[in-house]
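User: Let's play a game. I give you a shape written as tokens, and you guess the letters that built it. Ready? Here's round one.
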């Protein structure tokens, strides 16, 4: 299995293990004003992955294109850092998150689709695909999949913070 898929799976398994044991009341409760609940964070992750899949599929219909050397060096790893807060684009702001089973299923379904897209097109073709990220700018399709893994890591940390606040409340 390619490293990029291993990274996707490792973070995903860790997140699922963390949220699966939560009671529904904790899963859906917000830790405070305008703070997302665990349910909303998980729903946000599925919205982002669905959006990534849609945009990557559209980009894959275009002619292969190489990004310049410096653009290929954009470190998607910075997304995992929670040193600064980033406001989510409207399209991926979670509203009306469902219960735990439905929310986790939506995330798992999105992850399966993303992995299938990778397997169908391969790393070579994705490396020649340009994705327009709202904050990182133009990145390759491979970097986009890497972004998804680091984005999930970022929100795993957020989930841990939310759970800690709720348990100390």
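Assistant: Ready! My guess for every position:
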């Amino acid at each position: 299995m390619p490293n990029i898929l291993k990274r996707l799976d490792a973070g995903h398994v860790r997140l699922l293990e963390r949220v699966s044991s939560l009671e529904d009341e904790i899963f859906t409760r917000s830790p405070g004003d305008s703070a997302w609940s665990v349910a909303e964070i998980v729903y946000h992750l599925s919205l982002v992955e669905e959006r990534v899949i849609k945009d990557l599929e559209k980009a894959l219909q275009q002619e292969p294109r190489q990004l310049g050397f410096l653009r290929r060096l954009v470190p998607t790893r910075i997304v995992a850092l929670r040193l600064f807060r980033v406001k989510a684009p409207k399209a991926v702001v979670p509203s009306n998150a469902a219960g735990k089973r439905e929310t986790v299923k939506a995330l798992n379904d999105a992850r399966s689709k993303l992995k299938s897209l990778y397997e169908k097109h391969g790393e070579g073709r994705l490396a020649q695909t340009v994705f327009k990220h709202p904050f990182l700018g133009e990145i390759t399709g491979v970097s986009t999949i890497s972004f998804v893994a680091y984005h999930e890591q970022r929100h795993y940390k957020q989930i841990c913070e939310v759970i800690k606040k709720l348990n100390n409340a």
